[in-house]
Amino acid sequence: MDCLFCKIIAGDIPSAKVYEDELVYAFRDINPQAPTHILVIPKAHIDSVNGITCDNSAVVAHIFEVIPQIAAAEGLEKGYRVVSNCGQDAGQTVFHLHFHILGGKELSLEMA
Ligand code: 5GP
Ligand code: ZN
Questions:
Q1: Which of 34, 38, 46, 112 has the most CB atoms less than 10 A away?
Q2: Which atom of ligand 1 is nearest to the CA of 90?
Q3: d(Cα 22, Cα 28) in Å, to the nearest integer?
Q4: How far apart are CA 64 and CA 79, in angstroms?
Q5: Are 96 and 45 in contact (CB under 8 A)?
Q6: pLDDT tens for residues 38-80?
Q7: What would the mean pLDDT of 102-109 be, rounded to a whole number?
């Protein structure tokens, strides 16, 4: 499949890994919008939030168990934002489900 994030998971494209387990991969965004900007993705390809079903949603619960661990490891005790852009109007550019973790500064009401 011609998917950028599947290639990152496979190691075909390098990335700055911050966390990995059997279900999830997390790495630093190449174009950070905040001092800490991490992407958390399921290893199994899902296009977007619209692709979450009862058959694959367990990984989303797992992602939200992992996110606080990553935030703690990154020192984001003052808070952080979790964002998932879904589709054209939201500006989704990579169609492999991902959750942005943004923090390390007081965030505006824009995405970052
Ligand atoms: P979206 O706009 O789809 O919500 O988020 C996609 C994110 O992926 C963007 O924040 C963009 O900077 C990031 N991104 C795109 N290509 C790469 C890449 O090759 N490596 C990394 N680490 N991040 C990428
Ligand atoms: Zn993919």
A1: 38
A2: 4
A3: 19
A4: 15
A5: yes
A6: 999 999 999 999 999 999 999 999 999 999 999 999 999 999 9
A7: 94
Residue 100 among the catalytic residues:
no
Ligand 1 atom 15 nearest Cα:
30
Secondary structure in 3-state letters for the chain:
CCCHHHHHHHCCCCCCEEEECCCEEEEECCCCCCCEEEEEEECCCCCCHHHCCCCCCHHHHHHHHHHHHHHHHCCCCCCEEEECCCCHHHCCCCCCCCEEEEECCCCCCCCC
Pocket of ligand 1 from Cβ distances under 6 Å:
4, 13, 15, 27-31, 39, 85, 91-94
